[in-house]
Amino acid sequence: MLPVTTDPGREALLASATMKRAADVDRLTAGAELIEPQDGLPGKLALGRPLRVKLGLDPTRPDLHLGHAVLLRKLRQFQDAGHLAVLIVGDYTARIGDPSGRSELRPSMSVEQIEANARTYLDQAGKVIRLEEESLELRRNSEWLAPMGMDEVLRLTSSVTVAQMLERDDFHARYAAHKPISLVEFLYPLLQGQDSVAVEADVELGGTDQTFNLLMGRELQKAALQDPQVVLTMPLIEGTDGVRKMSKSYNNYVGLTDPPEEMFGRLMRVPDGLIAKYMRLCTALGHEVADEVERGLADGSARAVEQKRRMAREVVDLYHGMGAGRQAEAAFDRVHKERELPEEIAVVPVPEGAIGANGRVFLPKLLVLLELVSSSSEGRRLILQKGVRIDSRLISDPNLEISVENLHDSVVQIGRRRFVRLVVQDS
Predict the structure, then answer these.
(1) Which of 94, 287, 351, 422 has the highest count of CB atoms within 10 angstroms of its CB?
(2) d(CA 93, CA 56)
């Protein structure tokens, strides 16, 4: 029997490749909320070719914000590791509107609105991801969804049951509350799943509210005899109100194209409990730094206001260049010093009851609904006594009516110590 021999050089190469693949997996999955299947990414990387990593964005709003950037930054990590980003602008699915996380039917949008929004997306996404042809494949899902015939639509609908659809948290909650769910909304997860089939995705990225839709893509790929994609979800980030996920609909967003001073100011409204999360998901500081800050805030060894300023500077630097954060911070301090505004101001929505049929707000009534005064007559009296300011401007008219749009992001001040910042919620 011939002796078994080994090639030390080959074994060293294999060991090196295995270690590199493990390091790639750790880096690419850092911060992920869910990976399905959990051992799927190493298998995909073992294929030895650039992976097709899909991210879909529906152009339902003209601006991208930090919530979108959480996913775009993860997509950039895949690009930097040598993989191909497949960015899908959902110009067709936007006509339906993604029901994920919604408690009610999303209003429909016109084709003109969708197209206007879609035109801005690539430039904004370019603040985060690489736009070179070898790193990015840009697609619109109207390419394959618009030509679908009724037979293809019926084939898609036959792959899932109504009971499966009602397992989704948002659908289940609406059904239990007797709120309407349209059949068109049931189609949305199927159409998003069909996107994965059309582009032959190896990996799909999404927020945690997208889990059902992303897993649907795996099922449709199996039915199309494709190797199903790995699903990787990232945490949703709460907006500046600290309650709901970041969204322009809730006026709690920080836009990627916001001017530096405005971006810094919005970030300074983030509740203290979210500082570490914003550092982790929205800056280049890394998870270890964010974890250290989180521990410091918990044990009192770190001051929240200092860490919030640090976080805000880092985010501004990321989107406006090194040094922009310091300049924005200086501008923020000048404004607050001149206006004598506190750094922490409660953010509250304009109460619906304050808005008249003409879309204007009667200031004394607003003060009552904000619980800043006990009655409209007290509000008028305070105005006459020069005790009410809006954005540091002294108000003298006790019967002032203000357009609701002009109140968004305004600071109402009563006396020297009571402040609220108003936001106008979309209906």
Answers:
(1) 94
(2) 10
